[in-house]
Amino acid sequence: MKLYPQTGSEERARQLAWFATQSLIDEARLSPKPGLVDSRGNGAHHDLTLALMERSAHSLTPTFQALALQCWQRPADIALRQTVGRLGREGESQMMAATDGVNTHRGAIWALGLIVSAAAMLGGSGSPRDITETAAAIARLPDHAAPKVFSKGLRATRRYRVPGAREEAQQGFPHVMKLALPQLLRSRRQGASQSEAQLDALMAIMTSLSDTCVLSRAGLPGLEAMQNGARAVLLAGGCGGEQGRAALARLDSQMLALNASPGGAADLLAATLLLDRIAQPD
Ligand SMILES: CC(C)(COP(=O)(O)OP(=O)(O)OC[C@H]1O[C@@H](n2cnc3c(N)ncnc32)[C@H](O)[C@@H]1O)[C@@H](O)C(=O)NCCC(=O)NCCS
Ligand SMILES: Nc1ncnc2c1ncn2[C@@H]1O[C@H](COP(=O)(O)OP(=O)(O)OP(=O)(O)O)[C@@H](O)[C@H]1O
Fold first, then answer.
1. In this structure, which ligand is nearest to the CA of 169?
2. Which Pfam families match (predicted)?
């Protein structure tokens, strides 16, 4: 069944897509992030640059818009799950074409794609809780058309018996809802600047995520260094203070020495920024 959104929904779909792209760009530019691409440089990555991340983010706007239009006021059912899966995979192809085959945003297409879809299902807005619960309902449905492909993430979740990107979404994005968003709001209330509050939110995610990017590149020692280092930054008062910034610099050096990059945490920060943006009044 094809649904034709009424006027107004098309405008909101365009806006949601723009919000998603902008959240990816904000995440990529935010600095200094440990191990990740930021406006200082490439972090632990040899094949990624900030310009590439930005090109990739822009290439995804049509995907986010198509997701919003197709999901507009529809319930979570198998038909919708298949549409979302197809559009997500088309988005991955567009990203690969824009980056000459470099994986810049695979995990982000998944997380932000589900959130844009869920916001559209709810008529274009909603509380972070309603949106993430709706996103989880789509993520839990089977996508029979999904090809069985090898992925580093899947291998890491099996080898270390930890949840990965799929499970994070199926559980309603607990690292966003229980850690990152509360930290973002708390740091803002305590007078941190916008980027300090966003860095604190990233740290909050990194204290507990089983990030399969880190596990694939640096194993359990890498994951432990990430979680302990992020905890140390927050315990030192967060990125708004001198001690917190010194702890952040130590964590950055450690991640670089281990060749570790918390790509999954970065995706979830972008998801946090998107939910924060959707929740703002127009
Ligand atoms: C579920 C996905 C992410 C694949 O996951 P998998 O772990 O098998 O693959 P892969 O290693 O390629 O990517 C995982 C990416 O997720 C991020 N990530 C890593 N760990 C985590 C974590 N614990 N939590 C959240 N994200 C994480 C990282 O960026 C990583 O690169 C996704 O690509 C997928 O299945 N897409 C199919 C299309 C679809 O259904 N789309 C619908 C929404 S648009
Ligand atoms: N600012 C960022 N810097 C680096 N990675 C990011 C950033 N933001 C998000 N990511 C995520 O991190 C992932 C990249 O991780 P990684 O490089 O480990 O993946 P890979 O290309 O599959 O593996 P490898 O580079 O080890 O061959 C991207 O899919 C993206 O979702």
1. 1
2. CitG
Write the DSSP assignment of 247-264 as a string of letters.
HHHHHHHHHHHTT---HH
Q: Which residues constitute the domain of residue 237?
A: 9-144+155-279
Residue 83 Cα to ligand 1 midpoint, Å, equals 17
> Which protein residue's CA is at the shortest distance from atom 39 of ligand 1?
85
- What interface predicted TM-score (ipTM) does this complex get? 0.96
Residue 114: CATH number of its domain? 1.10.4200.10
Residues in the chain with pLDDT values less than 50: 1-4
The tokens for 236 are 């030192």
146: CA distance to ligand 2 center in Å?
A: 22
CA distances from 219 to 105, 119, 210, 215 (A): 21, 35, 11, 4
- What local confidence, expressed as pLDDT, does residue 1 receive? 35
